[in-house]
Write a structure and sequence with these properties.
- By secondary structure, the chain is of the alpha/beta class.
- The chain has one domain (2-238, 343-363): Aldolase class I (TIM Barrel), CATH 3.20.20.
- Helices cover 43% and strands 13% of the residues.
- The strands form two sheets. The chain has an eight-stranded mixed sheet, with helices on one face. A two-stranded antiparallel sheet has the order 9-10.
Length: 368
Amino acid sequence: MNITLVLTHDCNLRCRYCYAGKKWHKPMTWDVAKRALDLAFGEPSPWMDLSFFGGEPLIEFGLLKRALAYAKEQAAARGVLLRPQLTTNGTMLTEEVVEYVAAENILLGLSLDGCREAHEATRPGCGGASSFDAVVAGLDRVLARGLRVEVIAVVDPANVRWLAQSVAFLADRRVPRISLNPNFTGKWTDGAAAELERQYRLVADDYVARYRAGRPMWVNVIDGKIISRLKKGFCERDKCGFGVREIAVAPGGNLYPCERLVGEDTDEAIRMGNVFDGIDRAKQAEYRRLTGNSDPECAKCALRNRCMNWCACTNYSLTGAIDRAGGIVCFHEQLAIREADRAAALLFEAGQPEFLKRQYHVEAVPCA
């Protein structure tokens, strides 16, 4: 079970591509948080991923700590494995917060769009000032403590020209996991798409060069696609549990199948109950039935098993249907697979030992 508590609609940044909608001071109450956790623990599961999201969740740091303490009590009493996670913009990662994250072994997702030019093109503060230095300072505190962190860089038409430079910037700082998260709802003109293609090729070249130099990096669009080839496609466990194994709770208590669809908490069509009345089981059954992709064009594609055309929240945002892909998704997935396979072939043919160890003995666990 994966439950995400969206602790507030408020945020101290004004990212130009943000899907969360209007920012205002609407925090989650303790009553809503407790009811949400009780609801989640009522679902039969030996494990629970408890994620904190926003807005910026660290604005409600006190509520976060109280919710996690309660969840730990409930998990211990029920014999449930609890895995806490936090997605943050990084600007509020003070020494106190970092100490807490370390003590609680929280997995961090830190949003930083890369080098200064890329980040400042898309992630300004409330008044328009740069947030780059504050985020990098937070990242450096996290890295200095050796915490588990994944840096999430949103790839947007406004910052795509700096993509390879951004990946190099993060790799040079020894970020252990770099996730490139394309803004599929952005205005991807032919020129922007061509630039994305050029930048992915540069990223793949840098990926190969770093392995050859004994300084390997991990980038989701390369490593993930290599693993998907070795496993002959995505396993069910690799896919999100949209509305079934995964539920997000808006600050007001309404339930959604994914945190990315909470927005301003106004979309009744995708909503699936609330913490006071429980989960809408009919809606949940519908999401279970529609899991995957029903587009007949996708069914014909030789790459369909390695493509993320099953991402329900992306599909819904682009086409209004959770089982139909659209927009630039097809172009992106073919591009990522092509560059990942090219990088893998170069390293495999060279017998690069670190690459072979990682991909063939550690991460590429076959599907059951």
